[in-house]
Amino acid sequence: MRIRKRISRILATLLLLTLTGVARAETIRVAIGTQDTTINCAAGGLLIRELHLLDKYLPHTGKYKDARYDVQWKDFTSGAPITNEMIAGKLDFGVMADFPGTLNGAAFEKGGRKSVFITVLEGSIDGSGNGIVVPVDSPLHSIADLKGKTISVPFASTSHGMLLRAIKAQGWNPDTDVNIITQAPEVAGSALKAGKIDAHADFVPFADLFPYRGIARKIYDGAQSHAPTFHGSLVDAAYAQKYPEVVVAYLRAALEANRLLAQDPEKYSLLIENVTGIEAPVDYLYHGPLGVQTRDLTWKPEYRQAVATAIETLRLLKKTDSHLDVNTFIDDRYIREAFKESGIDYEAALKNYAKEPLIANDAATGKPIRDLNDVAQIWLVGEDKVRDYATPAQAFDALGKLGSGAKVRAVYVQDHGTGLKLFADQAWYVKDATGTVTAFLLKGAADAYARRVSGSVVDYAAARSGSQAVAVR
């Protein structure tokens, strides 16, 4: 009898150990929906995947001691299909902008579930990144010229919100004073080339990519709306509650990707080009120093407001009837823990509004560049680093001295009034009597500045006059 009881106890113990082992050996799925071509999402998707950064941080202690991970990556061109896959239980994380992210939260709410915004990846408190472009040979030069025109935009996107705010600022009725149609960027590119639309509004990177590819010209930058915009990451709240350490691991990988971008933006811009086909100069426009947006993983009040604005705007558009509470939809506990475990001061980062700094010497004089208001840069094919110049005139002079075999990836200038980073061949310039050359995105801004300094407004070719022509791209 005693022997039977001992055997029973032994068997029970073995069964318990077996079951415990099974639990510890659980396979945990980590399914992440990315937007590779939306290049300001790189730190939350493409770079983590391509550099295998997530593997470094996934937990393997405590309850995860014997856990196995099934990491899945799925790439999409917009946020809506990511949301569909998350709702269907096929994805755990999703990377998208403020507007589609809000629709994600509303979709979860409608299904009796919850998703949470866990981090910002990259954005602009003024709205840079979104923009409006027109065909290259269009006579239109500002948003004021768009009354009565046909403007396409991806509906319910962050750029749609920008467009509506810009129209409202003009005092126009969006239903009668302009003709707004829905159009994906892939379609809009062809429509711009064929002259089938008067203008196109879009999100990162298309308002800069289309001009770079020579099929459009930017006439409005989202920064003119002064409405914050960002792309960030969301997670299924139930998943986060079950595996909080996995969520923190993902965010630690994003922090490392962000650090690498800051450390070597040229190298990783080339990697992004290799994966997405989005040319490296466009990627650098965002990720390089003084870039179009800031890579900021903290929940600044302006980004919280962007989510609130998205909820309000989407309700007005009748795209949702959700009453999402921003205070619970945004959950900063995980990113704060990721900062802590990575040895980074979250509160200090939260207070930092600066763009990625430019710390460089002038390539012509060797002297440190102090004034960043009018810097210019040249990126040559075959060179690992971008050349920096204190002024556009110095950069243009350097272009003229390049040999005939030199190939230029891109030339960059900063808008004198706003500090916005621009492709030099897309800017307007003011030349004054002293020979100083000053860059502007908008012709109207250049005209006003020219009147103040008794200068003349010229295009890129004229701004470079006197220098030997070197083909860019």
Question: How do the helices and strands line up, and which of them pair or pack?
Answer:
Layout: H1 2-24, E1 27-34, H2 46-50, H3 54-57, E2 68-75, H4 79-87, E3 93-97, H5 98-110, E4 115-124, E5 131-134, E6 150-153, H6 158-169, E7 179-182, H7 185-194, E8 199-202, H8 206-212, E9 217-221, E10 229-236, H9 237-242, H10 244-263, H11 265-276, H12 280-287, H13 301-316, H14 326-329, H15 333-341, H16 346-351, E11 376-380, E12 387-389, H17 392-401, E13 408-414, E14 421-423, E15 428-431, E16 437-440, H18 443-453, E17 456-458, H19 460-463
Parallel strand pairs: 1-2, 1-3, 6-7, 6-8
Antiparallel strand pairs: 3-10, 4-10, 5-8, 5-9, 11-12, 11-13, 13-14, 15-16, 15-17
Helix pairs in contact: 4-5, 5-13, 10-11, 10-15, 11-12
Q: How does this model look, in words?
A:
This protein has helices spanning 2-24, 46-50, 54-57, 79-87, 98-110, 158-169, 185-194, 206-212, 237-242, 244-263, 265-276, 280-287, 301-316, 326-329, 333-341, 346-351, 392-401, 443-453, 460-463; strands at 27-34, 68-75, 93-97, 115-124, 131-134, 150-153, 179-182, 199-202, 217-221, 229-236, 376-380, 387-389, 408-414, 421-423, 428-431, 437-440, 456-458. Mean pLDDT is 93; it is low at 14-23 and 467-473. The protein has 473 residues and is of the alpha+beta class. 40% of the residues lie in helices and 19% in strands. β13 and β14 form a beta hairpin. The strands form four sheets. Strands 2-1-3-10-4 form a five-stranded mixed β-sheet, sandwiched between helices. The chain has a five-stranded mixed β-sheet with strand order 7-6-8-5-9. A four-stranded antiparallel β-sheet has the order 12-11-13-14. It has three domains: 2-123 and 229-351, Periplasmic binding protein-like II (D-Maltodextrin-Binding Protein, domain 2), CATH 3.40.190; 131-225, D-Maltodextrin-Binding Protein, domain 2 (3-Layer(aba) Sandwich), CATH 3.40.190.10; 376-463, no CATH class. The radius of gyration is 25 Å and the shape is globular. Residues 64-267 form the SsuA/THI5-like domain. This is Putative aliphatic sulfonates-binding protein. Residues 1-25 form the signal peptide. Part of a binding-protein-dependent transport system for aliphatic sulfonates. Putative binding protein.
